[in-house]
Amino acid sequence: MTGPVTEPHSTKADLAYLRVKELILSGELPPASVIAQARLARDIGISTTPLREALRRLKSEGLVELDAHRDARVAPLAAEEARDLLELRRSLDPLAVALAAERRTKADITAMRAAAQGLEPLPADPAYAHLVAHRRFHRALYAASHNDLLIQTLDSLWDKADRYRRLALEAERGQDARDRKAAEHEALVELVIAGEAEGAAAVMRRHIDTSLGAQAARRLLGDLPGGPVRSELSSRGRDRD
């Protein structure tokens, strides 16, 4: 795998944080896998001290688990978390694009069009760069809401959600489903730019209900009591974002 597609870093701990996060989201460090800290530090070219600092930061984001013996592993996937992420995104993403349709600026429109340029639905085994492009697109949409708390909340959900998207991509999907997702991406941009708040929210709601996150939640829930979301999941379509 090539080097990380990340923003500039300023310290060794920042470098370690970005690199380990990339390894987790790319699947090179799978869920529940043990993190060999000494070897990983050597691979990154740092000591274990900044690596431990990075791991603590990743723990605060729910991507890493640390125990009292200083052992570290990638946080496992969990049905409850998949369900919780889906419940939040079904509420917050439609709100964000509705606000974006009311508040978008010329700079926002430029950013949305740039992020949409060449964007394709995630492939079966996405590289980290694919995940970055996908996130950039959705962030351009919700950043146009100009609601700082909403933007921060959606930012905090994104890395966790990427791990469940990768799980859902293990199941093969057809070209028709991919084409529908591409059409939804295009529609979201055009509706936000046109100021169509209700239309943008409706498309986004459908986009989330048929997303990879929804597919992962459906796969993981099994017999877990899921309340309303589980019953809704069982009756919704099986397209994937």
From TrEMBL:
SUPFAM superfamilies per the UniProt record, alphabetical = GntR ligand-binding domain-like, Winged helix' DNA-binding domain
- Which residue numbers delimit the HTH gntR-type domain? 10-77
Name the SMART domains for this protein. Answer: FCD, HTH_GNTR
Q: Name one GO molecular function term.
A: DNA-binding transcription factor activity
Sorted alphabetically, which InterPro entries does this protein's record hold?
GntR_C, TF_FadR/GntR_C, Tscrpt_reg_HTH_GntR, WH-like_DNA-bd_sf, WH_DNA-bd_sf
Q: Which UniProt keywords apply?
A: DNA-binding, Transcription, Transcription regulation
Entries under Pfam families matching the protein: FCD, GntR
Q: Which domain of life is it from?
A: Bacteria
Q: What is this protein called?
A: GntR family transcriptional regulator
Question: What organism, scientifically named, is this protein from?
Answer: Nonomuraea longispora
